[in-house]
Amino acid sequence: MPRRIMQGTVVSDKGDKTIIVLVERRVMHPVYKKFIRQSKRYAAHDENNQFKTGDNVFIEESRPISKRKRWVVLTDAAAAAESGSSAG
């Protein structure tokens, strides 16, 4: 089964080798048919403590690292966008 990858914003970098990433998604309300924003916070492993509050990052599902951490940071979203645009 493939590992999930999500994009979000770092909202906390207080922990050692841990960041909290806020992932927002838009879903349609089942009755009112209006799009609403739902958000969830994920604890992700940041090995080098390189990401700071406000950074956009990609996180990937992984093995359990601690009680709350099941995600690892892949890369900075801005860096991924730059490398993707220069490839073409």
List the main descriptive attributes of the protein structure presented here:
single chain, 88 residues, ribonucleoprotein, Small ribosomal subunit protein uS17, RNA-binding, rRNA binding, globular, mainly beta
Largest sheet: 5 strands, mixed, barrel
The strand order across the widest sheet is 1-2-3-5-4
Low confidence ranges: none
**Beta content:** over 45%
Total beta strand runs:
5
Structural class, judged by helices and strands? mainly beta
Distance between the termini: 30 Å
Number of domains: 1
Radius of gyration, taken over Cα atoms and rounded to an integer in Å? 15 Å
Mean pLDDT: 91
**CATH homologous superfamily?**
Nucleic acid-binding proteins
| SSE series | EEEEEH
CATH fold title: OB fold (Dihydrolipoamide Acetyltransferase, E2P)
What is the overall shape? Answer: globular
Instruction: Count the DSSP helices.
Output: 1
| Share of residues in helices | 10-25%
In CATH, what is the class? Mainly Beta
CATH architectural arrangement: Beta Barrel
Structure overview:
This protein has one helix at 77-86, and strands at residues 5-12, 18-28, 35-45, 56-61, 71-76. It has a five-stranded mixed barrel with strand order 1-2-3-5-4. It is mostly beta strands and 88 residues long. The protein contains one helix and five strands. It has a single domain (5-86), classed as Beta Barrel (OB fold (Dihydrolipoamide Acetyltransferase, E2P)). A hairpin with a 5-residue loop joins strand 1 and strand 2 (18-28). The longest helix is centred in the C-terminal third of the chain and has 10 residues, at 77-86. 11% of the residues lie in helices and 48% in strands.
